[in-house]
Amino acid sequence: LPWIKEGATGNVHKECTVNGTWKTEENSSNVWRNQSECENHSFFKSKEEEVFRHSVLRVLSIVGYSLSFSSLCLAVLIMSLLRKLHCTRNYIHMNLFVSFIFRATAVIIKEVILHVAYTNLPRDEIGWNSYTKSTISFVCKASKVSLEYFVGCNYFWLLVEAIFLHTLLFTAVLTRKRLLKKYMIIGWGTPLLFVIPWTVAKALYENKSCWLNNITWIWWIIRGPLTLSVIVIFCIFLKIIRLLLSKLKAEQVKFTDYRYSLARATLVLIPLLGVHEIVFTLIIDESVEGSNRYARNVVHLTLSSFQGLLVAVLYCFANGEVRLVTTFEL
């Protein structure tokens, strides 16, 4: 084929019928062939662009979660060793940090497993049959389940942070230590209530590949509770901002100072409570296509992967209380 450049790849396809004969063209005895890969110079261009986009997202994910992982591990170590920081508020912060650590670990492990699973794939029927039943397939599915559980834990520890902050500001609760056990159940236990049913539904109705594809109703088993948690967090966030606004006005702070204080408090609360998730709850994957979906995923993945790093910096490394205690201990 003279129009094919040296080194180019492309296949001509024929179809074998159930009778063991080649499929023929309609109203003809000529064998049907699909040679669009060879005739169209840009046949693979869209696929190549898609692969490149996935590679960018994968690298961005690994870099963001790796930085979050290392910074959060250091933050947990610091807050664990400094006994003067041991209180209900910081215990909740530490559990949130740990949920971020587990989430980052699960994401990185999933990426490694997917890279191994989709490298050197079998090229014959016997190989595929053994591959789908192999250990790597089970490990791949197990990593997906673990990822969904730890993502759920992360969302619900963000919810716990919001609930605790609301409790401090709007109620007079004296037995806060007793609340910690309830918070632990909410943060680590609640995700089991929807991850287990999702796992069972996947095994029964969509037991394919590494469980990366999602049937809408099955995916909503997980998406529903997470969406509800994000909405509750956002409502609490608005209530807290309204309270801060009224207090700043009551203290008769200068307009520029009051605006600065409110903006600073808002920016500090956003990563702690994961308020940015409300945007991506409204703009879901199904509502956008093409380059818009890619842009949405880049922004969402950047905020999600680097969120742990921001939380570690704001609530540990740059925290006045932590720095004061650290200086005193040293």
TrEMBL record:
Compartments where located: Membrane
GO MF annotation, one: glucagon receptor activity
PROSITE patterns, A to Z: G_PROTEIN_RECEP_F2_2, G_PROTEIN_RECEP_F2_4
Keywords: Membrane, Transmembrane, Transmembrane helix
Membrane topology, as annotated: Multi-pass membrane protein
Listed transmembrane segments: 62-82, 94-118, 155-174, 186-205, 217-241, 262-284, 299-318
InterPro entries found in the cross-reference section: GPCR_2, GPCR_2-like_7TM, GPCR_2_secretin-like, GPCR_2_secretin-like_CS
Domain G-protein coupled receptors family 2 profile: residue ranges: 57-319
GO cellular component: plasma membrane
Primary localization class, coarse: membrane
One Pfam family named in its UniProt record: 7tm_2
A biological process term (GO) from this entry: cell surface receptor signaling pathway
Protein name per UniProt: G-protein coupled receptors family 2 profile 2 domain-containing protein
UniProt organism field: Sinocyclocheilus anshuiensis
Organismal lineage: Eukaryota, Metazoa, Chordata, Craniata, Vertebrata
